[in-house]
Amino acid sequence: MNPTEYQFTAEFAKKMDEDDPLAKFRDQFYFPKVNGKQAIYFCGNSLGLQPKTVKSYLDKELSNWENLAVDGHFHGEDAWYYARKKSKPALAEIVGAHTHEVVAMNNLSSNLHFLMVSFYQPTEKRNKILVEAGAFPSDQYMLETQVKFHGLDPESTIIELKPRAGEHNLRTEDILAKIHELGDSLAVVNMAGLQYYTGQLFDIKAITNAAHAVGAYAGFDLAHAAGNASLKLHDWDVDFATWCSYKYMNSGPGNISGIFVHERFAERPDLPRFAGWWGHDEGQRFLMEKGFIPMHGADGWQVANSNVLALAAHQASLDIFQEAGMEKLLAKSEKLTGYLEYLIQEISGKSGILEIITPKDPAERGCQLSLHIHRGGKAVFDEWYSQGVVGDWRNPNVIRLAPTPLYNSFMDVFSFGLILEQSLKKFA
Ligand SMILES: *Cc1c(COP(=O)(O)O)cnc(C)c1O
C-alpha cells in the first residue's frame, strides 16, 4: 500500500478494518486491561495474546490424563507417544519447510545449544562464528559457552558485525563481504533472522548462500521471525534454525520451541549430537537397548519425551495460524505496520523526540517498529502505558511496538496515534 493513501482519521482506520479479511480473528484472543480499559496491545513480539481456545485444548489433555493415565501414551488418535506429529504441518508452513524438517521440542536457548553441538565442529583452521553485534543475551551466552566448551577463546572466535558508523542496521553487502573475508576460517554463521532490538529482518537466503560458498554452515535464531516474516528455510537452503512459540506464535509464556534441520541432514547419524531416547528410532525405543539410532530428519534431534500440555496450548494457536494462512497474515502485516509508521512520521516526525530505527523497506522487517527515543527517555514509554499502550522498553533507549496482524486492528493503530499526539505536548 502506498503511504500517500494512509490517513490519520478514524474513518480511514474503520474502513481498513471493514475491508480486512482477518478482522474476525481479533475476537479469538483475550486482551489484557490497563487502568480498567482494554489495552492497545503492541507487545506480541514479547508475549503473544492467549487464544480463547487454549483452555479447551488443555482440558482435553487433562481429561485424557485423568481418565487414561499411563494408557494415554498409546491410546487413540491423540496418543501422546506421537504428540510431536500434530504441530508439524503448521510449523512447516510458518517457516517454509517440509514436515520432516521441523519438530517442536524443548525451549529456544536449549535448542540453540543442541543444534550447535551438531553444526559447530571447530578445527584449528575453521573455527570462527559470525553473529550480529548486540544479539539477544541468551544467544551471546550460548555462543560464549559453546566456544569455551571447545577450549577456544570467545574474544577471538566470535566475530560480531556492527552497523556502519551513524547507521542502525547492518547492510547485507557488509554481511556478505565479512563472510567472504572470513573465508575458510568461518565455521558457522549464527545470527538472528529478525533482530530483536532494531526489528531488522536479515536476508537469510543471501547470507546462507554466502556461508555455503566459503564452506560454512548457516543457522538462524528465528525468535522474532517465526510467525512474523516470510520464511522459506528449505528453499533458501538454511542448515538449521530454531524459534520460540510464545512471541508471535501466541502459545503461552515460556512455551515450547521448535527446530528446523534441512533435509540433507535427515540421514546423518554421523553428525555429533547430545541425544536422548526421544530422538531414537521410534519403533525400537522400547526395546531399551544400547546404541543410539537417530530418527529420520529433525525428529532425530529430540531429546526428551514430548511436553504434552505445552504442545496442546501450542496447537490451539497453530490451528488459528492455519486457518488464517501466512500469506494473508503477511499481507495485512505490511499494511498495518505501514500505517503505524505513517502515523508516527505524520505526528512526531518533526518533533525530534523519536526516530524509527527499523528499516523502511517492508522486505527488511516484520511487524515490529523500534523507536529510538531522543528526548524524555523511559518517561515517554510510561506515559503511553498509562494511556493503555502496551509495548516494551528496551535499554538503553528503544521502545518496541509490534502491531500483529492476527489480533491488532487499524483502529488500534489510530488510537495509538491520538495518544502519541497528546503525549508530544508533554515532551516537546
Ligand atoms: C526471546 C528470545 C530468546 C528467549 O529464549 P528462551 O530460551 O525462549 O528463554 C532467545 N533468543 C532470542 C533472539 C529471543 O528473541
TrEMBL record:
Report one GO cellular component.
cytoplasm
- Modified positions (N6-(pyridoxal phosphate)lysine) are 247
Gene3D superfamilies per record: Aspartate Aminotransferase, domain 1 (3.90.1150.10), Type I PLP-dependent aspartate aminotransferase-like (Major domain) (3.40.640.10)
Q: Which residues bind pyridoxal 5'-phosphate?
A: 108-109, 136-139, 221, 224, 246, 277, 305
Name the enzyme group at the top EC level.
hydrolase
EC number(s) on record? 3.7.1.3
Where on the tree of life does the source sit, at the highest rank?
Bacteria
Cofactors, names only: pyridoxal 5'-phosphate
Keyword field: Hydrolase, Pyridine nucleotide biosynthesis, Pyridoxal phosphate
Q: Does the keyword Hydrolase apply?
A: yes
MF (Gene Ontology): kynureninase activity; pyridoxal phosphate binding
Kindly give the InterPro entries that the UniProt entry links to this protein.
Kynureninase, PyrdxlP-dep_Trfase, PyrdxlP-dep_Trfase_major, PyrdxlP-dep_Trfase_small
Q: Which GO biological-process labels does this protein carry? A: anthranilate metabolic process; L-kynurenine catabolic process; L-tryptophan catabolic process to kynurenine; NAD+ biosynthetic process; quinolinate biosynthetic process
Recorded metabolic or biological pathway in which this protein acts: Cofactor biosynthesis; NAD(+) biosynthesis; quinolinate from L-kynurenine: step 2/3; Amino-acid degradation; L-kynurenine degradation; L-alanine and anthranilate from L-kynurenine: step 1/1
Q: Which reaction does it catalyse?
A: 3-hydroxy-L-kynurenine + H2O = 3-hydroxyanthranilate + L-alanine + H(+); L-kynurenine + H2O = anthranilate + L-alanine + H(+)
Q: Which SUPFAM superfamilies match?
A: PLP-dependent transferases (SSF53383)
Q: Which PANTHER family has this protein been placed in? A: KYNURENINASE
Instruction: Give the record's subunit note.
Output: Homodimer.
Give the protein family.
Belongs to the kynureninase family.
What task does this protein carry out? Catalyzes the cleavage of L-kynurenine (L-Kyn) and L-3-hydroxykynurenine (L-3OHKyn) into anthranilic acid (AA) and 3-hydroxyanthranilic acid (3-OHAA), respectively.
The protein's name = Kynureninase
Native organism is: Algoriphagus machipongonensis
Gene that produces this protein: kynU
